[in-house]
Write a structure and sequence with these properties.
Helix content is 34%, strand content 16%. By secondary structure, the protein is α+β, with helices and mostly antiparallel strands. The chain has one domain.
């Protein structure tokens, strides 16, 4: 296996199937000495929750959601 210039590597299909790594599965990396380990993330919601928490309260328009949707449909 080769690492691409973007630091990407393909996990072989048999390994993905054995580990249950489906598309969009969140994973974690651990380093021990000169070895790297990969495992499913404890929670598959971490990144989404972090993103929502970061955006919460950032709205600058004093409109209700239904009002915004009505504007996008006009």
């Amino acid at each position: 296996m080769r690492i691409t210039s973007k630091g990407q590597v393909t996990i072989p299909q048999n390994v993905r199937e054995q580990m249950g790594f489906l598309a969009n599965t969140e994973v974690e990396f651990f380093v021990s000495g000169n070895k790297v380990f990969i495992q499913k993330a404890e929670s598959d919601e971490g990144r989404g929750k972090d993103l929502i928490a970061c955006m919460k309260g950032k709205g600058t328009v004093a409109l209700r959601t239904d009002e915004i949707l009505a504007m996008t449909r006009e």
